[in-house]
Amino acid sequence: MCHYAERRSRRIAMLMADGVRTLDVTGPLEVFDAARALGHDYSVALYGCGSSSTVRCSSGLALAATPASALTDAVDTVIVFGGESLVHEGVPRDLEQVIAAKVSRARRIAAIGTGTFALGAAGLLDGRRATTHWRHLEAFATRHPTAIVDRESVYSRDGDIWTSAGSAAGIDLALALVADDHGPEVAHEITKELVVLSRRMEGHPQISAAARTPRPKHAGLQRLMATIGVDPAGHYELDTVAAQIGLSPRHLARLFKAQVGMTLRQYVHEVRLENAVGLVLAGESFHAAARRSGLRYGARIRDHLEAHRVVAEPIPNSPLLVDPGGAEAVTVYAG
């Protein structure tokens, strides 16, 4: 449920322990500060576990913080931050107790990165969909088998529980919280103010297809993959691409699979689907997104979003158009 019809002050409590990543904290802080500059009343306070008045980030930066014992029920949203120690050493008992006793009473609860482990330890994620940093997904799934692990999305929402992959993804989550409070137009303005290249929304992958794919050593394959990224709707028929690179089709197929880890067809499809999802989440219709990305049917995009329980929200001056029948067929050459 969105709350941007309400115009009231919102108190944000950021709860953290030593070892937190600096960007995990400062990214969301900047988002709420930009929202405040736009006239939206956010009051943000930092809270640390234990009795210390400082929290030391993994980078060495020390942050002034109020002891978590001072948390009150007047807080609207609590954001819990983690650190590598929550994964390797477990969640500190005092942090778990604070979350169970006080955080659970907030209207909205969020976790950045490994902060998801803290919510899980406090029992708040039983039967809930959640995510964390991609590197710790397996550890989280093993430690919290009753949670529904979203292994792909940059952030995930299940009712009043929000979780994200952390680091830069914390900015995306904070923008989503602001959009939930005040509408997507405000989040769009903050994106411009902070010079964020592109606002990622629920359903966007934590790591792009290009970033999660091994870089080939062959210069021709490097150029090919760069071209696919720039023009996913292009024609990538195996015979044509092989002739352009100067290889036989069979050699290209073997070389691509050996150096990239998947076939050319599979890679092209992943890039196209990722591009199309981004276009839909930015306000394009399934039909238009499919055509611009080189996919045959818009239904594939819809199925992907439904699998992740994602509802695309319109952005300013770009109404979301939905084609229930999907896109018309287009010629696809994937090799």
TrEMBL record:
Keyword Ribonucleoprotein on entry: no
Pfam family, one: DJ-1_PfpI
Domain named HTH araC/xylS-type: residues: 222-295
Cross-referenced InterPro entries: Class_I_gatase-like, DJ-1/PfpI, Homeodomain-like_sf, HTH_AraC, INH-QAR
SMART domains the UniProt entry points to: HTH_ARAC
Keywords tagged on the record: Transcription, Transcription regulation
GO MF annotation, one: sequence-specific DNA binding
Source species, domain of life: Bacteria
Name the record gives this protein: AraC family transcriptional regulator
